Amino acid sequence: MSAKAEAYSSSANLGPGFDILSMAHNAFKDIVIARTIEEKGKIIIKSNNPKIPLDPEKNSAGLATKILLQEKGIDEGVEIEINKGIPFGLGLGSSGASSVAAIAAVNELFELKLTQEEMVKYSMFGEQASSGSPHPDNVAASVYGGIIAVTSVSPVKVEKIPVNLDFKILLISPQGEREGKTKKAREMLPSKIDLSLYVKNSRYLSSLILGFIKGDKELIKQGLNDEIVEVAREPLYPHYKKIKEIALKNGAIGSCVSGAGPTVLVLYDDNTNLDKIKVESLEVCKAFGLTCNFISAQIAGGVKSERLN
Ligand SMILES: Nc1ncnc2c1ncn2[C@@H]1O[C@H](COP(=O)(O)OP(=O)(O)O)[C@@H](O)[C@H]1O
Ligand SMILES: N[C@@H](CCOP(=O)(O)O)C(=O)O
């Protein structure tokens, strides 16, 4: 028996929304095929990307699958074949998407009838394997599609944010897959924050969510800022501040770090001078010794799965 699922890349955090907000985009996707195998209780990982770990405990798709099977009392052996389309370590939710696609494929394989929230719950365990923390934002976006807010983690609750504005997405992404990047980025987080920063970030968060719902570009621009997490992790993306300045100067709706970086997310529309943003950003990347790729994308839908046989 086998089943297949595909899940899109995502940009988590979206300014002030650390571990809460995330956006699925069609920049890249991972495809996972789950197959039953003869050896009971065994999980085998295969992948076209030789750089990801094949140990099921260390692979996001493997750990999530293991916990799902355990909780459901399934002792069948399963092979998880991961066709990675999403480069990892760039802030594009690569580990999360593999985990989501594996959970959706296994759900299909054993007809588990998981709800979307249950899929998020199990996929989150996969993030423990890749970043040492079961953060929910990337996996929630890949499960639901669109722009989501995680409103509770125990139990998992996710809301899709209605987006009433037409915009496009530009990802400015330095080349080179970075091993253990999100794990390192989470170790850089402050354990305490100033009340004044908390207030500022809460204003940004309200502005951003209201901006998407009302279709108000000014509110989005005002909200797409972060005084806490983006700042604490600045050494991971020294190019970001300058690129954001360039994007805003050239009429972008807003810009923020994608996930834990180093990719920079730019939201833009027909009033944006995209060519100028690209030319000037390339110079900034060069100045920091980076080769940057530009990826155009749009908001994507949620995970899709099908039974193969
Ligand atoms: N299925 C997987 N897909 C991608 N990376 C994985 C997977 N399983 C484990 N990893 C590990 O997780 C890390 C990438 O995750 P992370 O740093 O969060 O980047 P991303 O922003 O792409 O999710 C790498 O160290 C990689 O080896
Ligand atoms: N909320 C997480 C998101 C990490 O996203 P990634 O795509 O960089 O793995 C965090 O900021 O740690």
The whole-number mean of residue pLDDT values reads 97
What string gives the helices and strands in order? EEEHEHHHEEEHHHHHEEHEE
Number of strands: 11
CATH fold annotation of the largest domain = Ribosomal Protein S5, domain 2
Poorly predicted segments = none
What share of residues is helical? 25-40%
Structural class: alpha+beta
The biggest beta sheet is recorded as: 7 strands, mixed
Number of domains: 2
The share of residues in extended strands comes to: 25-35%
As a whole number of angstroms, the C-alpha radius of gyration is 19 Å
From the spread of the alpha carbons, the general shape counts as: globular
Would you identify the CATH architecture of the largest domain?
2-Layer Sandwich
How far is it from the N-terminal to the C-terminal residue, by CA?
A: 5 Å
Main CATH class of the largest domain: Alpha Beta
Summarize this structure briefly.
The chain has 309 residues and is an alpha+beta fold.
How would you portray this structure in words?
InterPro entries: GHMP_kinase_C_dom, GHMP_kinase_C_sf, GHMP_kinase_N_dom, GHMP_knse_ATP-bd_CS, Homoserine_kinase, Ribosomal_Su5_D2-typ_SF, Ribsml_uS5_D2-typ_fold_subgr. The chain folds into two domains: 2-161 and 299-308, 2-Layer Sandwich (Ribosomal Protein S5, domain 2), CATH 3.30.230; 168-297, GHMP kinase, C-terminal domain (Alpha-Beta Plaits), CATH 3.30.70.890. The protein is globular. The chain has ten helices and eleven strands. Strand 8 (254-257) and strand 9 form a beta hairpin. The chain is α+β, with helices and mostly antiparallel strands. Helix 2 (94-109) packs across helix 4 (137-144) and helix 9 (240-249) runs antiparallel to helix 10. The strands form two sheets. Strands 1, 2, 3, 4, 5, 6 and 11 form a seven-stranded mixed sheet that branches. Strands 8-9-7-10 form a four-stranded antiparallel sheet. The chain starts with a strand and ends with a strand. Adenosine-5'-diphosphate binds at residues 52-53, 59-61, 82, 88-96, 98, 129-131, 179-182, 259.
